[in-house]
Amino acid sequence: MRIYTLVEDYSGYESPFLGQHGVSFLIEYGGKKLLFDTGQSEKAVLHNMKLLGIKAGDIDYVFLSHCHYDHTGGLLGILDATGKRVPVIAHPTIFRKHFVTKPHLRDVGVPFRREEVEERGELFLTAEPFQIVGGLYSTGEIRKREDFEKASVEVYTLRDGRIVRDELMDDMSVVVKTSEGIVIVSGCSHAGIVSIVKRAIEITGEERVRAVVGGFHLIDASEERISKTVEAFMELGVEEVYTGHCTGLRAEAAFLGTYGERFHKLHSGMVMEFGG
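Below the sequence we write its predicted structure tokens.
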């Protein structure tokens, strides 16, 4: 199994790769290539793919972890670059109205219409966990969330003409079985990264967690939540951590302090390999 970091907030030291606020990974597994999120623009993703020797036409599936523009914005351009109709896997509510009100009203959801995706690819919308490739699964919607991981982001949606808090139930991740244990890939972990790891273990029946990769959205979290997250990782036996994007410096420092050399800061162009 190989994971390519196609784009991340951090481009790396003395790097030819482009950084961008957002996330995009390419997961190579079982003879298939799954694009996990698309950053906020296809330009950085396609530039970095070229440097990594990856052709857009080789993408077999696209998986969207949730609705935010920095994870979905590059989708149309990347679908155009593939030159074929690729299955696009996402939650059924991903195209809902999604916005913030501070410091002003601003849409932060998918920056295009559903119809524009359907013109280019095949939408596969489900909230349920399922196998995409033999041994590679979508976690589906994370319904059971740890008390200390309740949604804290001030985002909203419209329901029957009313503004209501958006609990980001569309947040989904990918889990892959390898000979070394499971590897979990998350976008922003709005469902709570500990809740995601526990769900991945439940879905696969595998207790050995080889690695957790992605953004953990602890950038505005309290010290208590950060400490509980690191402690839970240790209790669950998570062996390695690869994180960046929305995780935040304080949380990264906490993971580094506990994991030492088993902590890795993500950057554009980083390639990770795990047992098959």
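The domain at 2-273 is CATH 3.60.15.10 (Metallo-beta-lactamase; Chain A).
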